[in-house]
Give the backbone structure.
Amino acid sequence: MLSARSLFQEIIDHDDSFQLFCSIAASGEAQGGWENGRIAALVPAGMADLAPRIARHGADEDKHGRIFNALLHKRGLEPVPVPPGTDYTMLLEQHGIGLPHDKLRREEPLTEEDIVVYLAHSRVTEQRAADQMDMLVKHFGHHPELGKAIRMICNDEENHLAYCHEELLRLAAAGHGRTIQTVLRESALTEIKVYRDVSLAVMAEMGRVLRWPRAKSAALSAGIQAMYGYERFGGWHRMISLRMPERRGALDGPPTVAPAF
């Protein structure tokens, strides 16, 4: 019987599929680290109080990339190129989620609206990240090879999500509520399509590496499409609600250091 646990167990038990999984994850985290680092450097003067938290967010993402690379090196593996169809962060940018990279490469300050849009985009994508890490911790939180890493990353993703909620609620109270709700809705509907397409591409790559029979690949594809149908019907609403988090000031202070693996 196919399950998230059995599927992921199969992926981590095989060096080639584990290598691809960690390479995809490390690449996405490194990209997120760069983006947040550039945004922190370009925050407009009137929102300078946000810069340390955005920088902390970027430092966390960089740390996650190093963690996935460390897991590879522990097995004596090196990162491999990420197939374009599996590159979640690149595809999000191509679909308008995330500030354009050409803007981030300039040395011109961002606008207040840019920061509002960035935080709304982050609220959506961090929900996805938190959901995924919750699932991994549920099934593999005590795994001897991965447990420590995924528990640390899960805690960071919960901090990132809390920070997005808190900052967006503050900005909504300051008069940005309509923009925030519009961007959240548009971003969520776009993200669920990108996530579906990336999930299909990742499963196709894993099927090739692990030589899955057609029936198994077809069943996984059907499951991914069914999840998209659920999210398109109404599941996306979880990605746009805002509530004051229990973790206040979640990104205050320096980032935690990645442990040795």
User: Anything to note?
Assistant: The two ends are 32 Å apart (CA to CA). The first helix runs from residue 4 to 13. The chain is about 70% helix and 0% strand.
